[in-house]
Amino acid sequence: MAAYRLNLIQSLFSVLVFCKPALTLDFGQSYSAGNSDLLAPRLYTEHDLKSKGLSDHVSFHPEGASEGFYCHYPDLKSKEWEACNDGADSRWCWLRQLQAQEGESHPKGYTVTTNYDNYVPIGIQRHYHLDISKQTIAPDGTPREARLMNGTYPGATVEACWGDTVIVHVTNNLDDEGSVIHWHGLRQFYNNDQDGVALTQCPIARGSTWTYNFTMLQYGTTWYHSHYILQYADGVLGPIVVHGPASAPYDVSLPTPHFMSDWVYRKAEEEFDNEKDPVVRGSKADNILVNGIGRSKEAVAAYNGEDIQSLYPITEILPGQRVRMRLINGAAGTSFIFSVDGHSIEIIANDLVPVEPKIVDSLLVAIGQRYDIIIHGLDNPSPSGNYWIRTHPADGCNTFRNGLFNSTDSTNEDPLDPRTGILHYGHSSATYLSLPDSTANTITDFSCARISEQTSLRPVVPWSISTTPLNNLTLSTFYPSHQTENDEPYGNYTHWLLRLDPLVEKQGGVSFHNPLFANFSTPSLLDFTNIGQGANDNVIRLPYSSKPTDFIHMVIDGSLLPSTNQSDLDPDVIPLLAHPMHWHGSDVVLLAQSEQPFDPATSMDTWNYENPPRRDTIMAPAGGYVAVAFKPDNPGVWLVHCHIAWHASAGLALQMVIDDGQGMVQSMLAGERMERLGKGCEEWKADLGKVVDYQKEESGV
């Protein structure tokens, strides 16, 4: 049986190469004792299976998949294995053996309780082609030139099954910009060069195609987006769906994710000028979109009962039905409170981590976060059969052109309508074209922290966290801050940064007080020995370890720097704002989230080390802190950054170097992988003088 353990490849990293046709190493579990098949790349596409008559394997259409989409597991023979996700009450199970092995009392397989850090089924290759181009669109009636994937907003869905290898060919058809595409939340285990950021590759030159290659070690809901300057705020993004098991039963799964975003009428680079303007004080959004659909008040007022789907996305449901929905927040600057009038929702996954089911009446979805939820249909819906789906900007985590749009004390002169979609019951008495008259759920907390909610989600696959980290926590406690012009002590805001306490810098002889600026022509991964030499490299070096009990601890503190004289401190130096922080290359556990400043003497006494929430994007509350932990088992150069696009572009980021100090990262990339990265940089450099390169004021991340 061609399958094997993830945790054995630590000693085999040197064989990870980028092959042609594009293949990566893939990881699965062998249930046969003594199996020595450690390396088994996914050799087949769906076309190969059909053309070569390879039909004696597990193959099935997962619930909610697009038409004609099938999961295939070529190495799991149909006489020995079967799909078990074949009914509403069996969603927890994905694949199972038909008979137990000798000495075993029950069949084994891949379920929601399988430790996906160690075991993954072997699927097939799936190829996707994405083209980036300019196109004028008007998602809410106001036209603007956007940058799109395959001509749509959001872009085409990348769909796969747990264990598939996905090969994405991205062509840059822009006439004046490069691009890189990041696969948000995918760990890229031992696959750092596929992360799609300016630290790991040069931008894709105009007219060139770059191929990304990665294996779906996780399953659930996520998204891809440009990590080149501010392109994702201009439209370069799209959803990713990875079919797999679930932690609660449901009847149907919606084929299209619920993709929430804000929308800016100006080109994002032009709007970024407001981020650096001390008078305007921050970039602004103009509207809210769901699945690329928005509306003006005039359009709603003029609605005559026809073509309602041009104004609102419609979600269909039947009485008593349990409907799985995938939520994605792909906004540039707005976190949202999601709710459905009169309905409860059941959380079954956050980011790409299955969680123990939890029922709520509303849910904070911060920028970059994703949730898989189940909407529980009413047994006796209203006669109209229509209920509002609401996407309300979270208090303190939104900036719109007309002012803040908060639940109370809003400064917005012309508030937007948070009613952004319709849940429609398809029973005989429903009036499909009528607008809902439903009443909003009673929501008492519209904040963008919602700490009790965020800290209560328990992963199905538990982790126990070491209380003793491998690193020095004092040198891993960072403060979102404003850089000052010419590094003067106060005022004159120019950029954001993640900085150490200046007193710690002085005592430790380290310098960490600049925004991160990427060098597009010399990515860190290709200049590994010189990382940290630049004033704007913002590097934290962390020791590699494959031991499952070893962890790194890190604190992001959104309060004032403890060593500053707060009575004299200009508030522009460290504005008290919430920051949705995103970690590349790792899932992180939430040890603590507090609206109080971090106190190294007492705060750690309250931390949760037993199966805390686990995800890749976590909100650092305004004036408070988050403490996280992660396994340093994924060698490479990885970004940590605020996912407010304007803040990331202003430098609010750092790069983590995870290495064993013995050349592990360089050895991992030796050969074809490094040659390929080098050729991409040669193309970029040859085209560099012909494009409008990013300005000095923009971080490149």
Automatic annotation (TrEMBL):
UniProt keyword annotations, A-Z: Copper, Metal-binding, Oxidoreductase, Signal
Residues of the Plastocyanin-like domain: 132-246, 259-403, 536-661
First and last residue of the signal peptide: 1-24
A Pfam family per the record: Cu-oxidase_3
Family listed: Belongs to the multicopper oxidase family.
Protein name: Multicopper oxidase domain-containing protein
Organism annotation: Neurospora intermedia
